[in-house]
Design brief:
The structure holds two protein chains of two kinds. By secondary structure, chain A is an all-alpha fold. In chain A, 74% of the residues lie in helices and 0% in strands. Chain B is mainly α. Chain B folds into two domains: 1-80, NADH-ubiquinone/plastoquinone oxidoreductase chain 6, subunit NuoJ (Four Helix Bundle (Hemerythrin (Met), subunit A)); 131-167. Chain B is 72% helix and 0% strand. Chain B is built from six helices and no strands. In chain B, helix 1 (2-22) packs antiparallel against helix 2 (26-46) and helix 2 (26-46) runs antiparallel to helix 3 (50-75). The chains are: A mainly alpha, B mainly alpha. Chain A binds chain B through residues 27, 99, 102, 132-134, 137-138, 140-141, 143-145, 147-148, 151-152, 155, 163, 167, 170, 174, 177, 181, 193-194, and chain B through 1, 27-28, 31, 34, 50-51, 54-55, 57-58, 61-63, 65-66, 69-70, 73, 126-128.
Chain lengths: 397, 167
């Protein structure tokens, strides 16, 4: 029965006994078990990734009133496998003048930056890779490696479009990292820890009810970090053909593509974990760890669906608007929200939980309203100024 | 076990550091610098300083190294450095490096701290909490912390002043 209550520990103990029975030393056995755990997690993620390709294509086709893949297998489920075979047997082209080592390293780093995120994802109370006490920062650090892979790909391809795409994408990534890190500190304030597992455990009330504005800012920043529409500046196909991955073919392109999809799913998951209780769902996680995993995967899929919904509904924003939106609106708003939350948290340290929750919620709503009012007034002023200039020009003619 | 990991990481870090100054391609130098910084982050992690390790990656790799690459790409037309890698004072530099290595080796040879093992971290010790408290506590590091913040604000104001487009 132990297996159903704590599968990871039971399996690890069983393997430890087995390996030590074969005459291995304890340390060697533990290292081997660690590697096996990583291998199993990564394999499951890659298999999941294959189906994400199918899922994404099916969902986008629904948004665009199409049917999507439906030829190979039931509901087109075998389609991604056919695509993988195609990618594997395609000619692998390295452009002349490309920096070979950097060029080949970039897709690996891109995929790696997504996969290492799963080391801190708590799938169930007893199932997580590592309980880092700096989990929120770790997510940003993994994103930094993703940024690096993009600039490496763009530069080493020896292609102008790739380089422009990489520059744009990295400009967006670097700027949206700041509001994202700032709002990640808000669940940290509520939970009193930066560890992802501790944040999940602290959510007797989902943090989205305490900080709806923070959840929204996190979602916007996450979409920008993913480089998805309306922030898909890096691969604006009408201007840049494909952006930083233009020269990649075959499975190397597949790595970027699969990495992007898994990244979107992962950030849907982090949105769910930081603001929607992670594996917690009305005590369901106490029943069985497997149910908890199902809950967190379901929530991650909902988050992923919302990201797709936004991607296939909105148009691309111009890059100056995007950066102005981040630096002039999102970043100051995130900083103000962080300060207000920290102040309220100190003020209401001894208050009853109802008062705490309602005043946190209200402070978020008021702050959002004030920010929108300021944005409205300043944009009207800018518009009037621009129209005044236009009138002067017209009178001149 | 830990010693082996440390030795591997230390050689990796030093080797990457050597490559930073010897490679002729400037972008490669920046990438080797990133691997050096990553090695330092691993050493922080080995020392149970998880916060510093992650901050090292976020700040140095995620921001500073990327800015280096940007600066090199935007200011240089040719990524290859053509001139000689040594100037005629190389022997003075080598002499100073060798004598400081020798001096440090001589001084630290008899030091007892090298053979001492660190005391184990007590369970329930939250390093991030302790660091946060130390940074804002008046009995610890609040003054250096504030001075560093003022310095950063001054740098920020200076950058805005330089980049500001006067109409």
């Amino acid at each position: 029965m132990d297996f159903w209550n704590d599968p990871l520990k039971t399996a690890a103990d069983f393997l430890l006994n087995l390996f030590m029975g074969w005459g291995m030393s304890e340390i060697a056995a533990q290292i081997l078990i660690g590697f096996l755990g990583v291998l199993i997690l990564l394999s499951l993620l890659m298999v999941l990734d294959i189906f994400l390709v199918w899922l994404e294509r099916k969902v986008v086709s629904r948004f665009q009133s199409r049917i999507g893949p439906n030829r190979v297998g039931p509901f087109g489920l075998i389609q991604p496998f056919a695509d993988i075979i195609k990618l594997l047997i395609k000619e692998d082209i390295t452009p002349t003048g490309a920096d070979k080592v950097v060029y080949n390293l970039a897709p690996l780093l891109s995929m790696m930056s997504v996969l290492i995120l799963w080391a801190v994802v708590p799938l169930a109370p007893t199932m997580l890779g590592v309980d880092l006490n700096v989990g929120a920062l770790y997510i940003i650090a993994a994103g930094a490696i993703g940024t690096l892979s993009i600039i490496m790909a763009g530069w080493s391809s020896n292609n102008k479009y790739a380089l422009i795409g990489a520059f744009r994408e990295v400009a967006v990534l670097l700027s949206f990292e700041i509001p994202m890190l700032t709002v990640m500190l808000i669940p940290t304030i509520f939970a009193g820890s930066m560890g992802i597992a501790a944040i999940t455990k602290a959510q007797d009330v989902w943090f989205v009810f305490l900080a709806p504005l923070a959840a929204l800012i996190f979602l916007i920043a996450a979409i920008a970090e993913l480089g998805r529409s309306p922030f898909d500046m890096g691969e604006a196909e009408s201007e840049l053909v494909a952006g930083y991955n233009i020269e990649y073919s075959g499975m190397k392109f597949g790595m970027f593509y699969a990495g992007e999809l898994l990244h979107a799913f992962t950030f849907g998951g982090f949105w769910a974990i930081l603001f929607f209780g992670g594996y917690r769902f009305f005590g369901l996680e106490q029943v069985s760890p497997f149910l908890a995993v199902a809950v967190v995967l379901f929530k991650a899929l909902v988050g992923y669906w919302i990201i797709m919904w936004i991607k296939y509904t909105l148009l691309r924003i111009r890059i100056d608007h995007m950066l102005a939106f981040n630096w002039k609106f999102l970043t100051p708003l995130a900083f103000t929200l962080l300060m207000v939350t920290a102040f309220m948290n100190a003020l209401l340290a001894d208050a009853s939980s109802w008062l705490y929750i309602s005043s946190m919620f209200l402070s978020n709503v008021v702050l959002a309203w004030v920010a929108l009012e300021i944005a409205r007034v300043s944009s009207r002023r800018a518009r009037e100024k621009a129209e005044g200039v236009k009138k002067v020009v017209e009178a001149h003619h | 076990m830990e010693k082996t990991i440390f030795l591997v990481v230390a050689f990796f870090t030093l080797g990457s550091g050597l490559m930073v100054v010897t490679t002729r391609n400037l972008i490669h130098a920046a990438l080797w610098l990133i691997s050096t910084l990553f090695g330092v982050a691993v050493i922080f992690a080995l020392l149970d300083a998880g916060f510093l390790a992650v901050v090292q990656v976020v700040v140095y790799i995620g921001a500073i190294a990327i800015l280096f690459i940007f600066a090199v790409m935007l200011t240089r037309k040719d990524m290859r450095d053509q001139g000689p890698q040594m100037n005629r004072n190389w022997w003075i530099g080598a002499l100073i490096a060798a004598s400081s290595f020798g001096g440090l080796f001589f001084l630290l040879r008899g030091w007892s701290g090298l053979s001492r093992t660190a005391s184990a971290i007590p369970s329930g010790f939250d390093a991030v909490n302790e660091l946060g408290n130390a940074l804002v506590s008046p009995t610890a590091y609040v003054l250096p912390f504030e001075v560093a913040s003022v310095l950063l604000v001054a740098a920020l104001v200076g950058a805005v002043y330089l980049a500001f487009n006067r109409k």
